[in-house]
Structure formats: C-alpha cells, structure tokens
User: What shape does this take?
Amino acid sequence: MDRHTSQRIAIEASLRSAQRPLSPAEILDAAKPDAPTINLATVYRTLKRLIESGLIRPVELPGEPSRYELAGLPHHHHFKCDACDRVFDVPGKCPSGLTDGLPSGFRVRDHEVVLVGTCADCGPRPTSARPSHRSTVSRQSNRRS
Ligand SMILES: [Zn+2]
Ligand SMILES: [Zn+2]
Assistant: This one.
C-alpha cells in the first residue's frame, strides 16, 4: 500500500471513529499514529480528494473554519462548544416552524441547525451572558458553487 493510500485510510478512519465533524488540525492529530509522515498540507490535499469522490463533506458553520464529516450520515444537527471549539453531532428532532415566515414561492431544500454552548467536558460558564441557543437556516435554493 503506498503512502498516499495509507494517509487516506488514516484520515477516513479518524473521521469514522470521532463520530463528530473534525477540523483539519484535529484530523492531523487523529491520523498521525497511523500515518506518521502526514502533515497539514497532505491532510488538506486528501480532504479535497475525499470530497471530490463524495466520501466526506464539509460542515460549514457561520464564521467558523470548515470541519469535515463522512458523507451519507442521516440528517442531524450540530453543537459547537465555544470553550473547546469542538463540534458535535446532535441527532435530535428537527425544530418545527422554521419555514412559517417563508414568502410564497420560496422552496426549502435543506436546513442546518447549530446549537452553541459548552460541552460536558467544559462545563457551564456562569458569567456568560450570551444566548445558549441559536438556530440558523441556510443553504436554501439559491446557492451556486
Ligand atoms: Zn467543550
Ligand atoms: Zn433538521
């Protein structure tokens, strides 16, 4: 098996075992034990190739660097911890009423919900005055690539 193949397998395995979206830096850390020659440039190059072949997809959160997750997961939402910057999957029910105010003629293709707060490892932040919950609706019908 050549070096590129083992790096690709290590990256895919990292994403599969993390069970949450990972940033390139997190992927690098997770893949390193299995692919010691890997570096951030090879992570980016491999991610690009895995996206092109439809095996993974980027997770875009507003104002955040991209994370990556396996493609083809069942619909789910995300939780971003603003203490440790990790993003988690939330397989909960979709919120109702998201499309109530939509003007007629608009067609929704997809939605994303991002919960923001602190994860169990980081604990509550008692001085925080920020709302602990935020929903965003995006990726509607007019996105171009
Ligand atoms: Zn955290
Ligand atoms: Zn949903």
Notes: Residues 137-145 have pLDDT under 50 and may be disordered. The longest strand covers residues 77-81. The CA atoms of residues 8 and 46 lie 6 Å apart. The chain has three helices and five strands.
